[in-house]
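hey so u asked for the seq, here:
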Amino acid sequence: MLKFIMQTLNLRIAYDTNTLIYRFKQIPIIKNWIPQSLYGNDGLKSVFQVISILFHIVGLFLRKILYALLMIFLFQSSLKSKDGNILLTVYFFLTIMGAFCNNEMISASKEKYYTVTLMRVNAKKYALFSFFFDLIEQMVGFLPVYLIAIFGFHLPFYLLPIFILFHISAKLIGAMVALKYYEWKKKMILNNWYIMLPFYLLLFGCAYGLPFIPILVTPILFSVIAIILFLIALLCAIPYLKKTEIYYRLYRSEFTFNVVLFGTKSNQKEMQKKQYEKMIDEGRSINTSKKGYEYFNELFVTRHHSILTKSAYRMAIIYLVLVVVAGISVVVIPVMGERLNRILMTFLPYFVFIMYFSNRGSVITQAMFMNCDHSMLAYRFYRKADVILNLFKTRLKTILKINFPPTIVIALGLPILLYLSGGTSQPLNYFLLFISIIAMYVFFSVHYLVMYYLLQPYNINMEQKGMLYSIVSSVTYLVAYFCIQMKVPTPIFAIFVIAFAIIYALVALYLVYHYAPKTFHLK
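ran it, structure tokens below
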């Protein structure tokens, strides 16, 4: 077993080193100084091995600290409270969520594909080693976070081992549940959004909603739950993970399907095509009087109904249920009504993140490229300025139409909830709540399509290679996330959002009309 561990670690180090060299070769200034022969130069490669290991160690701590800062500490500071129970509550629910959405046992990766599928390493041994090695890394990486939580928020020191126990137990149970589901249904539980989306929304809502009620997880309650989970992990999860023989089938079917996309460029292209072809509704009829490029766009939307329109309606239904539940709650429980009223009058920035999450712009533009523009941009007539601009206008209408159902539920739901929770002395606030959500909806719809046309990030092999596109996308996410931490009076923030959305839309459309014919092409 020791020999197997050493071999696997060497494989992992070799993979990380080659990946680091490859990334350095993608940097314009540096790539000319790195010869292709470096991959076979043992001396220079040893230097990159050391750098790779250092990057891995530093990254291990930085990722955990950054996660805690963005997801826990900033939320705590926005409440202007040093109550450690709030921190425990957020950590508790996010960790349960992470037991499924960020579990090494069921996460596909290039390394797993290379190691098990190509190099024929024993799937069960590798899966268990990779999983438990990740648990050790998680335990070490989170130590600084746990110490900050204990000393910074005055939590009892005995929680240090309890934190570790809870985290590891949640991961073990999450792995067991996921593998049992795979044995039962022959598919990954993460791909079943009918189960996972409500589950994630419930946990996310509990993490950031319960502190406002407040219903909080105390150190004693946290410790009791951690011990119960540990017993379940010890008596059920660990024996199951050691006994089951599902790993080889899992790696050969699910992980190969996902990770083979990282193989040769021809394979990548074919597999991505197959993925999108499965989502095309070729049997759907289209009844429209539209002609030309408008008909062309209508045909595209109709055939991609399942990944575009259908998902937007699902989201609208979820939001409608939440609005109805919240409305009933504030009427039945007056205390909740008072709290919700204060939230609606100061937490409008929070809905920037919700609208970011709700917008289908990135999914729509990706589908446009994979199943339309990737082929059509090869023709000269399709790259003409008038064609690009006319299709842009048609597509902007389409994105606005697709994003409208969840938007209108939120835009109408917020003023209604404000009224039911006690109302406001300024009737204008009802209008500002409504129109500010509409402004966010317009902004994100325009933003994603404009980015696609000005920064077209995909190359001919369907790979997303646009560095600037990735940077702008990351900045968009960070700005939306940091809005969660803002507490600004609703009228002030609403006026700012409306003005910003109008100015941004005008500037963005101007840039598209002047530069899209030059930037929208295959790379």
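DSSP finds 20 helices and no strands in the chain. The chain has two domains: 2-261, 290-519.
lmk if thats what u needed
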